[in-house]
Amino acid sequence: MEKNNRKQEEEVSSAKIRNLTIAAFVIFILLFGGGAFTFFKIKNQPGETQQTGVQDPLRKVLNENENVFNKVFSSNHLAKTYPKSEAVKNVRVNGDVGMGNDFDAKDWKLKLVKADGDTLAISLADIQKLPKTEITFDFKCIEGWSQVTNWGGVKFSDFVKAYHLDQQSQKKYIGLVTPDGEYYVGIDMPSAMHPQTLLCYEMNGKPLPMDQGYPLRLMIPTKYGIKSLKRIGTLSFSNERPKDYWYERGYDYYSGL
User: Fold this and answer.
1) Number of structural domains, the chain?
2) What whole-number distance in Å separates Cα of residue 33 and Cα of residue 27?
3) How confident is the model over 148-194, as pLDDT tens digits?
4) CB 38 within 8 A of CB 25
5) Oxidoreductase molybdopterin-binding domain location, by residue (predicted)?
6) Where are the alpha helices (DSSP H) in 102-249?
């Protein structure tokens, strides 16, 4: 009797395992099929253009992410800072788009577009006369690496004050473009006016190297490095989103941390 009960239990257990295995396999097939269907459905959606970079459904999700970031953003939210002694000496370069070899530094001036037909040409010496600020923080790249780095320059908010850009700073965005026009970013105004956002002309206490954006670059610790445009040629203000290099290649416009 006991032997028969054991045999029945073994048969039940084997049948249960077999049924569970079949069920798991069916669920796997359904999930895999559903995932593949969703992938190809999104892939074939209209909307992928040079301006948006991805299909409409994905772009809508990225735009919603930006809306959430904008609502919770605060100037009191500060990137973690470090002692200057912890900054690396060999600073990695995050990209070289816009860093053409034909750049002539001696002719450089920042073109500050206040309005149509009203553009100032500002020299590096002019910018260096403004109050200097240094920051040492963990620079994060979208490629997955980060480095604690030290930068010096002028707060963007101090630059706005010095050049009486109160009216311009009421707009929603700033746009920055390299002198050769190859690299360009758009920054929401609250992030631009954040107390840690700098127009940088120094790295580790020395003038920026050419491959780090000499003579002037943006440094915005609350965003990924793709927004910290090197070698600023033109700075403008807008209520419409300025074009953005990586947005056009499928990344979200905000790129916040």
Assistant:
1) 1
2) 10
3) 999 999 999 999 999 999 999 999 999 999 999 999 999 999 999 99
4) no
5) 103-246
6) 124-128, 156-162, 189-192
